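Record 1 of the preview.
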Amino acid sequence: MAATTLFELVSPERLFFSQPVEMVVVPGTEGDFGALPGHMPKLATVRPGVIVIFENGKPKERIFVAGGFAEVTEEACTVLAEEAALVSDLQVSTAEARLAAAEAAYAANPLAADGEKDALDRELAIATAMLAAAKGEFAYH
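->
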């Protein structure tokens, strides 16, 4: 049996995932990174995208996250996500509606203050990543 690391994904609603995994790839803001057993300790911010869980060297599960934080140790990888959903549960129409709403809010506030502009940018990034995930446009197929 291959060595494993504990992967836990926590969303605001619940403990979304908690199992030993062979490897997990996380969409970090500085680039995707893989967490394996014995990984060097790391703290990272997570961008909107898809977490991929590997088993037997192949992708087993894909989970969309809207961003958050990740902590990697030699024994575990924990992601605290702002929002999480199985990619298989995402609907293209729902993601398109979210993107349209984000684009409309952005267009309606061309002179938004810095804090409000940051929130508009963030929602636009989340909606764009969610639509890409719903359409299957992500790495590690």
